[in-house]
Specification:
The complex is a heterodimer of chains A (113) and B (114).
Chain A (H helix, E strand, L loop, with lengths): L3 E4 L2 E4 L5 E7 L5 E7 L5 E9 L2 E4 L6 E3 L9 E3 L8 E8 L8 E2 L3 E5 L1
Parallel strand pairs in A: 2-11
Antiparallel strand pairs in A: 1-3, 3-8, 4-5, 4-9, 5-6, 7-8, 9-10, 9-11
Chain B lengths: L2 E3 L4 E5 L4 E3 L2 E3 L5 E8 L6 E7 L7 E2 L2 E6 L4 E6 L8 E9 L6 E2 L3 E6 L1
Parallel strand pairs in B: 2-12
Antiparallel strand pairs in B: 1-4, 3-9, 5-6, 5-10, 7-8, 8-9, 10-11, 10-12
The chains are: A mainly beta (113), B mainly beta (114).
Chain lengths: 113, 114
């Protein structure tokens, strides 16, 4: 049981480049979400999904797109990377609406130069 | 919007002693959940303990316990018999009962002195 898998673990982008951070879970969890963590800050919610085909914005959605075509996958897209998007990104999932336990991936460290 | 405040950027404790990490939150909701997460240098987010707002009894998990003061909107974490492996960043987090997504505090860096 792999849990939540994020790829890549590290990435360096040039300003203006695009990329997709991958997140996959094998626990058949309904809920998936993306957070970013900046120095001196806690994690902040970017986007979340309550099931396949359903997504919504979190606290800091600007500059990011998401889609949820399957239960297992929830990719995060940066269409035109900016230095302000340099951060550590975490994907998390949980089983259902009343579930308490979020399972986090190990994070992706993204640097935009 | 809900906010979570951790007023201690860093705490230090001697091994085997007890330490308490503070957390306050602001909400107008009555149905919510509170969590403490541990983040060691490996970066992994690890759930330490959770508390449902409707429960009056404070949650306990082995050496970890909380002091949940609903009226004061306070949710502190007590770590007893501190161990070197407890050294990490600790984040307090909040979730509204009817919505997804966690709101995190800025974290407390816990140092364990041998």
């Amino acid at each position: 049981n792999a849990g939540v898998t994020q790829t890549p673990k590290f990435q360096v982008l040039k300003t203006g480049q695009s990329m997709t951070l991958q997140c996959a879970q094998d626990m058949n969890h309904e809920y998936m979400s993306w957070y970013r963590q900046d120095p001196g800050m806690g994690l902040r919610l970017i986007h979340y999904s309550v099931g396949a085909g359903i997504t919504d914005q979190g606290e800091v959605p600007n500059g990011y797109n998401v889609s949820r075509s399957t239960t297992e996958d929830f990719p995060l897209r940066l269409l035109s990377a900016a230095p302000s998007q340099t951060s550590v990104y975490f994907c998390a999932s949980k089983e259902g609406w009343r579930s308490y336990g979020y399972t986090f991936g190990s994070g992706t460290r993204l640097t935009v130069v | 919007a809900q906010t979570v405040t951790q007023s201690q950027p860093e705490m230090s404790v001697q091994e085997a002693e007890t330490v308490t990490l503070s957390c306050t939150y602001d909400t107008s909701e009555s149905d919510y959940y509170l969590f403490w997460y541990k983040q060691p240098p490996s970066r992994q987010m690890i759930l330490v303990i959770r508390q449902e707002a409707y429960k009056q009894q404070n949650a306990t998990e082995n050496r970890f316990s909380v002091n949940f003061q609903k009226a004061a909107k306070s949710f502190s974490l007590k770590i007893s018999d501190s161990q070197l492996g407890d050294a990490a960043m600790y984040f307090c987090a909040y979730r509204t009962g009817g919505a997804d997504g966690l709101t995190f505090g800025k974290g407390t860096h816990l140092i364990i002195q041998p």
